[in-house]
Amino acid sequence: MTEQYVLVVDDDPAFSQFTRNLLTEKEMRVVVAASKAEGLEAFERERPSCVILDIFLPDGSGVDLIKPMRAASLTLPIIMVSGQSEVEEVVRAMKEGASDYVKKPFQGEELLLKMQMVFDASHAKLELDRLRVKARPEEEYNLLFGLSDRMSKVQAVLDQVAGTDITVLITGESGTGKELVAKAVHKASERANEPFIKVNCAALPRELLESELFGFEKGAFTGAHRRKYGRFEMAQNGTIFLDEIVEMHMDLQSKLLHVLQEKQFFRIGGEREVKANCRILCATNKNLERMVEEGKFRRDLYYRVNVVNIVVPPLRERKDDIPLLVDYFLNRYCQMYNRDTLKVSPRLMEMFLNYTWQGNVRELENNVKRLIILGNEAQLIAEFQRKRENGQYGAIPDDGPVGNPEPAQRTQAAGRTSSRASADSEDKNGAERNVATPPGKGTLKEVAKIAQRHAEKELIEKVLGQTRWNRRKAAQILDISYKALLYKIKDCGLNME
Fold first, then answer.
1. Rounded CA gap, 353 and 319, in Å?
2. Is the pTM of this model over 0.70?
3. From the DSSP assignment, how many helices (H) and strands (E) are in the chain?
4. Sign of CA dihedral 465, 471, 477, 478
């Protein structure tokens, strides 16, 4: 444990001095901070190899520092200390990523033992990560399934279907990584050494898409001077990925249904059936069930392609993956643009972690590109601060995610239902409704935004009342971050009176 740099964040001078003396004797370099602000500043400046962090600090809970520190390093040992028995804060600290916890007062040997244990665990994790990279060289696969529980569940479904030939429908918002999931299914299947062919159904008009999919014979139409093989033939023995399948014309949907049923097709102008020995994967960012009800997608085809549905969650619901994604994009684009390697500061990483990412992984990737091109964080941080002031940190995409609503969305939906119900009740009683009236020429989005703000205010006020203004519990119930709740309380003008 020689030549280690330890950051001690504690407002008790006696404890800080005791720890400094103990660790200095073990040839460690020690820096002490007495508050959250000082601790974060020292962390950014020095980048310690271990942090000893008090839970209760003068300017708030030390637990709040874990996320930005952990974002900077996934293997950094963080030991929490406290002289008070606050179980909830200890549990929260461990959930946020603390390595261990020691209750004051303690013997010096106990702290040294804890430090040795977390250092060993950190080194073991680094070694395990190296072995995983060697065992799974597919970088995109590692990137896709990252760290979050949500993506682990996606991986579990993927592992179950990969060894079969059943058709898989992959759904999720734009930019979530549906193509990467499709590639992962292919790579994990017995067809992994055969072609993976992607077709973007939204990128081509009907006539071109038909010839791209099925090919054509010489003389089939004007300009057909030679036979052209379609994508289904190119994907022979492999996998064909039909992206944005909902954009496919109804006539082509009929042909695709025939391929799924009969495993064969005709080239345009052809008289001989061609075998289609390939696995079909489909993807969409639309609600396919709704499209079926609206008559925009064939019901019989829907049941054929939706044998198994893999739902890729939006980035805002798997924020544990953000540090991993940021590191990946930094390394990738620094090499691509021939720039020196950059590191994201804890401050910017905290902004990344708290942002909603309506454009998902694609939006995050573009922001990292901008960071590399600009060469510094100032402009990016200023932009995120403006977004925070404009309330965009709690925004939800206008179209909403596809598939079944997740807990956070159900909570908001319940809030809207609750507010509508109470409003109807007040109307029946003849009471006035305290709802801001939208301008006469307001757009639909403006009206919806006003209604959403009113519904959010009612729901937040109700949950705060139920928790007796315990804002941390309220944030957990509402499924938003503590900081996001504080912002919304201020934005809505709520107070305990």
1. 6
2. no
3. 21, 14
4. positive
